[in-house]
What we know:
Elements: H1 7-14, H2 18-26, H3 33-46, H4 48-57, E1 66-71, H5 77-92, E2 96-101, H6 106-118, E3 122-127, H7 138-143, E4 147-150, E5 161-164, H8 166-179, E6 185-190, H9 195-210, E7 220-223, H10 229-243, E8 247-250, H11 253-265, E9 275-279, E10 293-297, H12 299-316, E11 323-326, E12 328-331, H13 358-365, E13 370-375, H14 381-396, E14 400-406, H15 411-424, E15 428-431, H16 440-446, E16 451-455, E17 469-473, H17 475-489, E18 495-502, H18 507-523, E19 527-535, H19 541-551, E20 557-560, H20 563-575, E21 582-586, H21 590-598, E22 601-606, H22 609-623, E23 632-635, E24 638-641, H23 645-653
Parallel strand pairs: 1-2, 1-3, 3-4, 4-5, 5-11, 6-7, 6-8, 8-9, 9-10, 13-14, 13-15, 15-16, 16-17, 17-23, 18-19, 18-20, 20-21, 21-22
Antiparallel strand pairs: 10-12, 22-24
Amino acid sequence: MAKKVTIKDIADMAGVSIATVSHVINRTRYVSPDLVEKIENIIIETGYQKKIEEKERRLKVGRQSEIVAVIPNVESTIYRDMVGYLKKYVSIQGYQFYIAITDNDIKEEAQVLEGLIQNKKTAGIIHVPVSDVAADYKKLIESGIPFVCMERNILGDGIDSVEFRDREAIFKGTDYLLECGHKNILFLRESLKSTTRDERTRGFLLALEEHGINTNDANISDINIESGADNCILEIQKAMRRYMPTAIMAGGNRITLYLMKTMRDRGIECPEEISVVGFGDEGWSELTYPPLTILKRDVEGLSRRAVNMLFEKINTGHVIEQDYYADVELIIRKSTRMLDNGPFGEEAATPESIVITKEEKSRLRAGNFRVAISFHYTGTSWAELHEKGIRDELEQYGIDIISVTDAHFDASLQNAQLEGIRLQKPDAVIAIPADDKETKEQFRELAKVSKLVFLSNVPENMEKNSYVCCVSVNEIENGVNVGRMMGEYCKGKHVEAGFIIHGAVFYGTRARDEAAEKIISEQYKNIDIKAIRGFGEIENAYQVCKDMITENPQIKVLYVSWDRPALLAIKALKEMHREDIAIFTTDLDYKIAQFMESGIVKGLSTQRPYEQGRTAAHVVAKSLLSNDVPKYVGVQPYVVDAKQLGRAWKDIFHEGMPEEMK
């Protein structure tokens, strides 16, 4: 009969102590990854794994056989998830697991703890305390029953706790909103006092301080989440009316849910009117429209560590370290937007802020107004969508389009076309300059007879009062989106990157390229930008890419300013057999979508040309009757990755993806 393998045999074979093997099996102390792997392999090879599994199936009974989690409620997702993970890890240790609920009430909690102290079966307690005052837990502390505080803490010496990095988390979320240009940020926090609440408040105020904003609690509102959904929503409504924020930092899961309900009920568009960063331990945060930018906590990691610390106290009477902190990750989705600034520093208005009344619509239809369009280039589906958006909007008001010109990126040709348009004396012109410098004089002349609305870009040194408005995608956000996608793709590894940027001086592309470079340099230190090369003419992007990769073959990720030069860069990479290099760019089209499907394009942020066209036409219509038109209107860009390419295609092109691409 074969001899049964014992834990001592495992220790001898691994050349370690029995205690070390025990710590690997029970995960009660840190052991180096290499040693863990060695011991686990021996356990599997000798069949000792079956003995461990059998032990896990036999729960302890009798005295000191129960582990109890004392929690505020089971309504909050975080506590429901905790219970599941705690049960899993307690059962592995062979103990029975129970929960007790305090309803966040100090008297109810005292009764619960009194019962557990008297119960001879209580081996240990994992506690989410209602109070942070040690005197409130004198009986528990003096009872000698091993306990660990979880998620919240009791202030005092010798009290062990496992917590989230709440201060860093709220700092991270608030800092992100401030980086997006928001200055008036409302922080919604739970009214119940706790160390968690205090840490989150410190994180919020610290972020304001680091951005030079007055650090006080004027933009903090307390929400009593125990008072019911209706009352919470009412409190949030009052706070929003009082502070009129452009962004809100939600301080918990349920607050996030009530906030989104409030915004939906009041018809507030997110993120067009208000950006939101919430807590997202719940699965619905990714399924909302828009998907929420969230702070996501490692609940399983925290639960596992709490159980390990408790059993270390049960087995040894003490723990190695008093406190442990679990990370909170900021996951950026689509509930936040960057506040953009126009060429003269003016804050971007949203398309929704420009309202044409019923009476104004009647006047427009009776006005016999005429509009011309001057494109820098029309040979793309992008320009077609711009034009379609313009036509669909102007058609509502009976405004005629008298001409559409294509300059083929030739400034001299556009100047000649603009002169022809000027002689026609249209009431308004919608234009994209072919060159910032070469066309400015002709646009100045045109402005004397027609109202000018620019798409994407304003000619260099064009006086502010000589044109009506510039309608652009938020190019800074466009660049930040691409930079963040690059950063997340490269997370956890050192990567060398290349940047192929627009060498010509265009406000939009310059802002986009600089924003992408800035976000990588400041927030993703693991990415080394090895080379930055510019192209003037689009065709030059092909050779620029070849030269860059020849000189820097170690580059693994590449930023290219927009889709057309990106396609030329991909052509160069294919010829060099370097399809291992990941491409990130802006603007979605058919060929880029194909390369995203095949895997070389990993992510992009795109303009929404149809919406830009409609917005430009809407601005024109308003300007024909009123001077009350914003100088700069920003249309939010759209983030695209391969997983939701089909939906993105429909949202951008307003039609289903071609069958051959599905």
